[in-house]
Predict the structure.
Amino acid sequence: MTSTSYFGVDPGNFSIHWPGEAQFGPGCVDSLAQWASAWNVRKPILISDQGIIDSGLLAPVLELLRASGAEPVIYGGVEANPTISNVVLAKAVWHSQDCDGLIAFGGGSVIDVSKILLAHLCSDAPIVDVLKDGDALLVRPLPPFAAVPTTAGTGSESTTAALIKDEFGRKHVMRSRRCRPQWIALDPRLTLSVPRSVSACTGFDVVMHALGAATNRASNPLGEILAIDALSRSLRALPTVLNDLKNLDARTELMLASYLAGVAMSLRGVDGIHGLCTPLESVVEAPHAHVLAVVCEPLMRFNLETMAPCYARLAVSCGIVSGETSIRDQAHSLIEAICNLRELACLPRSLDDIGANLEAMPSVYEAARTNASLRLNGRQLSQDDIVTVYAAMRGANHKENS
Ligand SMILES: [Fe+2]
């Protein structure tokens, strides 16, 4: 099943799948122990990473879980770019400790590893097959699974996707509706200590998710509404967060935007910005948001030819511009808003900035050709178009290509 068919592009044919129950608001993480008791989880594996453990965020949660009679077992080995070996090690802990539930406590990498672990636990197939076929290979009932995101970014708590690298550095995306957490605590207090550079990257990812889900060719009107709302919230909240990291209102807004963008993506997928980003990520070491920042402007300018009305509608909906100027001007104002945000977030804008090796680009073009998100892009790209848009990422002045 390709992503294109997973999301559906036939007008009038779409499906609606919701993620699990989400608790929202400052302090809601304190309900985690009640969730564990309600599901009779006595020995959860708590999946996290060393940064979160060192931050001290986990300590009060562990205390509450223990006070309720649970005996959490910590696996804190998730890497920033998680690998299949993270899942294998967590699975060994699960079996050796006889665990009976999962708690993901961390950013997108932690939640992705937990989703893949859940699938691995419920399937007899090799992990590479589980990554490819997802729900189709789950043969056992899923154990209880809760997630507590500590960043507002990937929206992994509400998306159907989980990313992981194999031992050769290749990225795999598992798609599974069933392996999403059944209970989520969206507690914006947990994001208050996220440093500016990380907030910039995760927040820009939210904007790109919302934009992609709002503008692609998939035919899910509910997902479109959620995506537009998430875009409006994230464009409003991210500059405030970047100027005032401890602003709880803006952090709250961004966390909600991240979750809503995740739901929108689970219904509609994304667009060519992620479609051109993923192949590049196989040949550069830069963070996801850095690659998105390089890709977004040239692709949006390429898209203008057919998508100006769509961009214009978004610019007006998000309050960037009034509806009294021309469609073209309104559409340009959306691109300018994204570029200004990229500037404020101190993110790169060219292939040079992310250390891309131009000799590797032919393999990038080839991978992009079959990328499912690129096929969902609002304006279709020929192979020549793909090369042209990547070429526009080399120069500093993307406007030349508009
Ligand atoms: Fe992303």
About this structure: Residues 288-317 form the longest helix (30 residues).
